[in-house]
C-alpha cells in the first residue's frame, strides 16, 4: 500500500499540500506572528518583508497572521460540515439501502428534491434563515452535503447486503447493528473516505464563496474568501494582497482533490 | 497497472499545465505593470506637445467627451424618472425655474427672480424672456403651469410628485412671464421643488425624444450602451452655463474594473472611481473629489439599553476616532462631520460645532459614571453590500475595544436591513450613509419624533420644536441659524456618532478641465472645457 502510494503522483502531491496546510493550522493554534485582528492604520499595505512575511492589508493587519487564523476557519467549517453531512447522510442512506421499499422511496425522493437546488443557493437560503456566522455556515454546508453521502451509502448497502457472506451472517442470527458495524461498514469505508475528502474541498470553496458574498464568516474574523473579496478593491494598487488568499484557497482545494483522487486510485479494487 | 500510470502521467501533466498558466499570467501581470510604468516617463512630454496642437486643430465644439454612467436610465422624462443618475444627466437637457450651484444655493434659471409672500403661502416667479425649448418654441408661463399641475396632479390625473401633490394648491399665470404657486401651508423647503425640470406644454414624447431648455440637446439613447447629447448653440438661460464641448456621450458602465480599463485605453474621459483606484490611476488623470452631501453615521438606537444613557452615547463619541476611520477606510478621501449635515450644504452647515474630540480617558470615566466600568457588548448591524460601512465597523470595533466596549459585527442583507433596522427599529447600532437633496430638512427632520423613519428612536420635544420652526422660516439666514442650532442639539445629546461625508471621486482626463461637484449628483457638462 505504501509502495503504491509512493507511485501515485496525485496522492503524493495532495499529501504534501495538505501537510503544509496542517503545519500552518497547528502553528496558528500555538501562536501567530501578530494578533490577526490588530489594526495599525499607520502601516497599511506594507509589501512583504521580514517584519510582515506577506505584507499588511488595508487596515495594517498582518496578512500572514490572518492567513494562519483563516486556516482555522477553513478547518472548522470543513470538518463540521463534512461531519454533519456524513452522519446524516450515512443514517438516511443506511435506512434507505438496508430496508428498501417505501422507506427507500421516501428518503430518496427527499434527497432528489434537495438535489434539485444548487448547493450554494440552498446554503444561501439556510444562512438567511438562521443568520450568518461560522457555525451557521458549517451547518448550511453540512446540510447541502447530505444527499451526496446518502446516495453513496445507499448504493454500497444495496450492493453489499446481497453478498453471500452477509446472507451467511444473517442466517447465523447476527443482529442488524452488528451486521452493519462488522460486515457492511468496513467494506464501504473507502468510497466514504474519498467522498468525505472531496466534500471537504467543496466545503472550503463554498465557505470562501459565501464569505465573499458577505454571508459566511463575519468580520473581523479572518476567512480566505472574505480576504479575497476585500483585496478585490485594491487589485490595481496592491495586487499581491488578492494573490495570497487566492493561492491559499487554490492550493488547499487542489490538495484535498488530489488526495481524494489518489485515495480512490489506491483503494479501487477493480483496477487491481 | 499501465492505465493507472498513464492516468497519473496525465494528471501530472495537467498540474504542470495549470502551474504554467499561473506563471504565465503572473508574468503577464508584471509585463502589464511595466507597460503602465513606462508611459509615466515618456508620455507626459508627448501629450503636452500634442494637446496644444490638438486643441488648435480641433476646437472644443468638435470634441466628444465620454462620461461613465453607473446605471441604466429608468426614464428619460424627468417627471417620470426617480433615479439619481438619470437626473444627473438630464439636468443638462432640462432646467427648472431655479437652478443650484456648487454650494447648494439656488440660482435663477428659467425664472429671473422670485418673491415669497409675507405669509409664506405663495411664491411669485418672473420668467426670463427669450428662453427657448430645443424645438425652437418659447418657454413661457403656460409651460410652467403645465409642468407643475401635472406633477401635483391638479389636472385630475395621478400626481407624479407626492410632496407637491400634498403641498401645491394652485398655479396661476397672470401673464405670459409670471407664475404664482400657492401652497397649502408654510414650507421653506418648497424651494427645493423649484429645480424640477420644466417641460413643454402638450409635448408627450419626453420619454423617447426629450426636449428641454438646457445647454445640451438630446441626440440619442441606445439601451444598455449610451446617451448622447450635443451642444445647444442657442442656449441663453444661464450665462455662465453656456456649453463649450460639442458632444457628450454618457456611456453606461457599471463595473469598476471596466471603467478603469476604459479610462486607461482612452475610451472614457470622466468616470467616478473608488478611493484606492483613484490613487492607482496616477499621473495620467486629474482627480476631482469632494463631499457628496452624504453623512455616514454610526446610528445608535436611543431606546435600547445601554444606549438610552446619554453618558454611554457620549463615551462612544469620545472613543471613536473619525480621522483614523477616514484614513483607513476611504484613504483620506472624506470630510469629517460633527453633526447630521454634510459640509456640501455650505449655507446651513454648522462649521463651528462644539464637538467631541477623541479622548479615551474621558470616555472611560463617562462609562464609569454610567455604571459600565467593565464595558458592555455592542452589536453593530451592517448591510453586507456596503464595503465602506463594513470596513468602518471593523475600525470602530478596534477603537471601542480600548474603552472596554466589545463590538460584535453582524452583516445582514440590504432587504433585511431595510425591514429589521430601518422599519422595525430592531437593532442596537448600525452604520449607514444618508444622502440629502438641496433642503437641510431632509437630514435634520430624521431625528424628529414625528418622522416615521426615525429609526434612531431619538425623541426630544425641544428638538422637534426647533425643526418645525426652521421648516416654516422662509428667510434663508434665519433658517440657517435655526438649523445650525439643530445640529449642535444633536451633538449635545450625542444622538449618534456622525462620522464623515465620504468623497465622491472623479478621474478626469488631463485634456479636460473644470469638473465641479454639486450637492445633488449632477454631471454639469457646461462646467467642462478643453484645456488650452
TrEMBL record, chain A:
Species of origin: Sporobacter termitidis DSM 10068
Protein name stated in the entry: Peptide/nickel transport system permease protein
Gene3D superfamilies in the record: MetI-like
All residue ranges annotated as the ABC transmembrane type-1 domain in the record: 71-260
Subcellular location: Cell membrane
UniProt-listed GO biological process terms: transmembrane transport
Tagged with keyword Isomerase: no
PANTHER family given in the database record: OLIGOPEPTIDE TRANSPORT SYSTEM PERMEASE PROTEIN APPC, PEPTIDE ABC TRANSPORTER PERMEASE PROTEIN
Membrane-spanning segments: 13-34, 74-99, 119-144, 192-215, 240-260
Automatic annotation (TrEMBL), chain B:
Record protein name field: Peptide/nickel transport system substrate-binding protein
Keyword Aminoacyl-tRNA synthetase: no
Keyword vocabulary terms for this entry: Signal, Transport
Pfam (any one): SBP_bac_5
Membrane topology: Lipid-anchor
Keyword Hydrolase on entry: no
Spans annotated as Disordered: 36-62
Localization, UniProt: Cell membrane
Biased composition (Low complexity): 49-61
GO cellular component: ATP-binding cassette (ABC) transporter complex; periplasmic space
Gene Ontology terms for molecular function: peptide transmembrane transporter activity
Domain Solute-binding protein family: 106-454
Cross-referenced InterPro entries: Peptide/Ni-bd (IPR030678), SBP_5 (IPR039424), SBP_5_CS (IPR023765), SBP_5_dom (IPR000914)
Amino acid at each position: 500500500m505504501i509502495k503504491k502510494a509512493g507511485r501515485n503522483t496525485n496522492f503524493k502531491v495532495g499529501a504534501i499540500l495538505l501537510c503544509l496546510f496542517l503545519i500552518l493550522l497547528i502553528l496558528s493554534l500555538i501562536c501567530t506572528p501578530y494578533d490577526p485582528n490588530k489594526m495599525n492604520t499607520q502601516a497599511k499595505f506594507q509589501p512583504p518583508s521580514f517584519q510582515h512575511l506577506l505584507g499588511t492589508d488595508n487596515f495594517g493587519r498582518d496578512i500572514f497572521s490572518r492567513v494562519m487564523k483563516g486556516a482555522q476557519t477553513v478547518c472548522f467549517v470543513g470538518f463540521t460540515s463534512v461531519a454533519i453531512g456524513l452522519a446524516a447522510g450515512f443514517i438516511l442512506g443506511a435506512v434507505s439501502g438496508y430496508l428498501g421499499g417505501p422507506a427507500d422511496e421516501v428518503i430518496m425522493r427527499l434527497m432528489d428534491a434537495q438535489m434539485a437546488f444548487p448547493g450554494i443557493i440552498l446554503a444561501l437560503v439556510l444562512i438567511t434563515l438562521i443568520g450568518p456566522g461560522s457555525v451557521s455556515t458549517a451547518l448550511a454546508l453540512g446540510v447541502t452535503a447530505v444527499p451526496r453521502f446518502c446516495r453513496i451509502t445507499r448504493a454500497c448497502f444495496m450492493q453489499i447486503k446481497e453478498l453471500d457472506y452477509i446472507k451467511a451472517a444473517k442466517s447465523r442470527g447476527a443482529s442488524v447493528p452488528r451486521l452493519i458495524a462488522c460486515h457492511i461498514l468496513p467494506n464501504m469505508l473507502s468510497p466514504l473516505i474519498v467522498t468525505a475528502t472531496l466534500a471537504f474541498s467543496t466545503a472550503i470553496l463554498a465557505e470562501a464563496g459565501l464569505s465573499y458574498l458577505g454571508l459566511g464568516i463575519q468580520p473581523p474574523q479572518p476567512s480566505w474568501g472574505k480576504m479575497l473579496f476585500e483585496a478585490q478593491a485594491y487589485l490595481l494598487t496592491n495586487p499581491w494582497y488578492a494573490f495570497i488568499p487566492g493561492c491559499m484557497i487554490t492550493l488547499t482545494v487542489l490538495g484535498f482533490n488530489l488526495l481524494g483522487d489518489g485515495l480512490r486510485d489506491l483503494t479501487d479494487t477493480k483496477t487491481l | 497497472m499501465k492505465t493507472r500510470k498513464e492516468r497519473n502521467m496525465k494528471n501530472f501533466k495537467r498540474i504542470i499545465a495549470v502551474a504554467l498558466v499561473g506563471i504565465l499570467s503572473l508574468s503577464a501581470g508584471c509585463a502589464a505593470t511595466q507597460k503602465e510604468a513606462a508611459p509615466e516617463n515618456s508620455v507626459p512630454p508627448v501629450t503636452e506637445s500634442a494637446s496644444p496642437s490638438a486643441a488648435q486643430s480641433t476646437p472644443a465644439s468638435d470634441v466628444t467627451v465620454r462620461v461613465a454612467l453607473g446605471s441604466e436610465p429608468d426614464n428619460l422624462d424627468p417627471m417620470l424618472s426617480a433615479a439619481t443618475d438619470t437626473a444627473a444627466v438630464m439636468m443638462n437637457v432640462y432646467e427648472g425655474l431655479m437652478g443650484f450651484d456648487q454650494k447648494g444655493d439656488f440660482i435663477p434659471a428659467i425664472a429671473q427672480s422670485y418673491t415669497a409672500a409675507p405669509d409664506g403661502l405663495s411664491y411669485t416667479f418672473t420668467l426670463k424672456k427669450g428662453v427657448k425649448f430645443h424645438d425652437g418654441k418659447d418657454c413661457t408661463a403656460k409651460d410652467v403651469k403645465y409642468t407643475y399641475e401635472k406633477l401635483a396632479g391638479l389636472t385630475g390625473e395621478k400626481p407624479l410628485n407626492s410632496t407637491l401633490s400634498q403641498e401645491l394648491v394652485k398655479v396661476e399665470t397672470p401673464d405670459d412671464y409670471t407664475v404664482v404657486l400657492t401652497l397649502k401651508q408654510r414650507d421653506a423647503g418648497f424651494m427645493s421643488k423649484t429645480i424640477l425640470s420644466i417641460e413643454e406644454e402638450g409635448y408627450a414624447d419626453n420619454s423617447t425624444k426629450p426636449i428641454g431648455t438646457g445647454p445640451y440637446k438630446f441626440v440619442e439613447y441606445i439601451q444598455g450602451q449610451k446617451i448622447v447629447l450635443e451642444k445647444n448653440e442657442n442656449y441663453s438661460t444661464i450665462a455662465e452655463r453656456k456649453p463649450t464641448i460639442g458632444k457628450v456621450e454618457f456611456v453606461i458602465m457599471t463595473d469598476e474594473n471596466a471603467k478603469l480599463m476604459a479610462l486607461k485605453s482612452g475610451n472614457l474621459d470622466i468616470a467616478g472611481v473608488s478611493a484606492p483606484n483613484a490613487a492607482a490611476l496616477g499621473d495620467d488623470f486629474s482627480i476631482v473629489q469632494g463631499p457628496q452631501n452624504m453623512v455616514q453615521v454610526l446610528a445608535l438606537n436611543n431606546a435600547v439599553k445601554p444606549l438610552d444613557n446619554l453618558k454611554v452615547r457620549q463615551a462612544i463619541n469620545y472613543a471613536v476616532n473619525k480621522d483614523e476611520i477616514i484614513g483607513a477606510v476611504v484613504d483620506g478621501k472624506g470630510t469629517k462631520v460633527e453633526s447630521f449635515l454634510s459640509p456640501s450644504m455650505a449655507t446651513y452647515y454648522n462649521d463651528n460645532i462644539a464637538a467631541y474630540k477623541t479622548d479615551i480617558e474621558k470616555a472611560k470615566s463617562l462609562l464609569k459614571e454610567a455604571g459600565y466600568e467593565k464595558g458592555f457588548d455592542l452589536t453593530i448591524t451592517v448591510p453586507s453590500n456596503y464595503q465602506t460601512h463594513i470596513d468602518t465597523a471593523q475600525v470602530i470595533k478596534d477603537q471601542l475595544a480600548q474603552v472596554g466596549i466589545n463590538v460584535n459585527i453582524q452583516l445582514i442583507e440590504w432587504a433585511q436591513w431595510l425591514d429589521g433596522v430601518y422599519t422595525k427599529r430592531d437593532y442596537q447600532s448600525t452604520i449607514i450613509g444618508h444622502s440629502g437633496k438641496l433642503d437641510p430638512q431632509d437630514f435634520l427632520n430624521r431625528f424628529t419624533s414625528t418622522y416615521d423613519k426615525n429609526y434612531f428612536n431619538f425623541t426630544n420635544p425641544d428638538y422637534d420644536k426647533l425643526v418645525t420652526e426652521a421648516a416654516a422660516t422662509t428667510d434663508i439666514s434665519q433658517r440657517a441659524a435655526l438649523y445650525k442650532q439643530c445640529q449642535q442639539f444633536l451633538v449635545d445629546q450625542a444622538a449618534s456618532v456622525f462620522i464623515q461625508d465620504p468623497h465622491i471621486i472623479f478621474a478626469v482626463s488631463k485634456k479636460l478641465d473644470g469638473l465641479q461637484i454639486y450637492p445633488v449628483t449632477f454631471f454639469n457638462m457646461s462646467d467642462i472645457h478643453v484645456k488650452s
